[in-house]
Specification:
Length: about 220
C-alpha cells in the first residue's frame, strides 16, 4: 500500500495520488482559466492609495496592481502551468510543447494538456505530489484574492478551562465567549459555564494560574 504524495494518507490503489487528491487536482486545473479571468477586475489599484498622508510630491501610484499583473503575466499563473507541462512531456519522452498566442490562451492550452494526462500523472509520475501541491497553492493563492474567506470572530478570550476529567486531569483549553452567546463553552471538553457561575469560574481560573506559577 502506498501513501498519497499530497495528503499523505494510505492509498490502496498504489498510485502517487489517491483518488480524492486526483479529483481535487483535476478540478483545480479546470478552474485556473476562470480564475485567471477573474483577476482582471482586481488590476486597478485601490482608490485609497492617493488618500494617504504625505501624498503631495510623492511618486505617482502604479496604474495597476503589480502583484495581479505578475500573476496574469507570462511568468505568473501560465508560467507555472507551462513549466509543469514541459516537465511532463520530458518525462514521458514526448516532444516539447509549443506555447504561442496570448497568455490566457496559453494557460487554457497548458491546463487542458495536463488534464488529459492526469490518469498517467496520478498513477505513474513520481513528481505527482509536488505538481499537485503547486497547483493547489496556485489555485488557493489566486482564489484568496478573488474571494477571500471572511475573518471568523472567535469571540473574547476568557481564560483556561478549569474543568477536571474523571482522572483529575485539568482540561486547560482556552475558553472564549462567542459573539451573541450567553454561556462560555469549552470547545475541547464541552463543559459549559453559564453566567451564574462566572464568579466561581474566575476564582477557579485564578487558582489554576497560581498553581502553574508556583510550579
Amino acid at each position: 500500500m502506498n501513501t498519497c504524495q499530497l495528503c499523505e494518507q494510505p492509498d490502496e490503489t498504489g498510485s502517487y495520488l489517491c483518488v480524492g487528491c486526483t479529483k481535487a487536482t483535476t478540478v483545480r486545473l479546470e478552474c485556473l482559466p476562470d480564475l485567471y479571468a477573474g483577476l482582471a477586475p482586481f488590476l486597478a489599484p485601490s482608490t485609497a492609495v492617493a488618500q494617504g498622508r504625505g501624498g503631495k510630491g510623492g511618486p505617482a501610484p502604479l496604474p495597476v496592481r503589480e502583484e495581479i499583473l505578475d500573476l496574469r503575466g507570462p511568468g505568473g499563473m501560465v508560467g507555472v502551468v507551462e513549466d509543469w507541462l514541459s516537465a511532463l512531456h520530458a518525462d514521458r519522452g514526448m516532444r516539447p510543447p509549443t506555447f504561442t498566442g496570448a497568455v490566457e490562451a496559453r494557460l487554457k492550452f497548458a491546463a487542458a494538456r495536463l488534464l488529459v494526462n492526469m490518469p498517467w500523472v496520478a498513477v505513474l509520475w513520481p513528481q505527482a505530489g509536488t505538481f499537485a501541491a503547486e497547483i493547489r497553492d496556485l489555485e488557493k493563492g489566486v482564489r484568496s484574492i478573488i474571494a477571500p474567506e471572511p475573518t471568523v470572530d472567535r469571540g473574547r478570550r476568557i481564560g483556561n478551562c478549569p474543568a477536571l476529567d474523571p482522572s483529575g486531569t485539568l482540561c486547560g483549553a482556552v475558553l472564549r465567549l462567542a459573539l451573541g452567546e450567553k454561556a462560555v463553552r469549552c470547545e475541547w471538553c464541552g463543559t459549559a459555564y453559564p453566567p451564574y457561575v462566572w464568579g466561581q469560574l474566575k476564582a477557579w481560573m485564578a487558582e489554576d494560574e497560581k498553581t502553574r506559577n508556583a510550579a
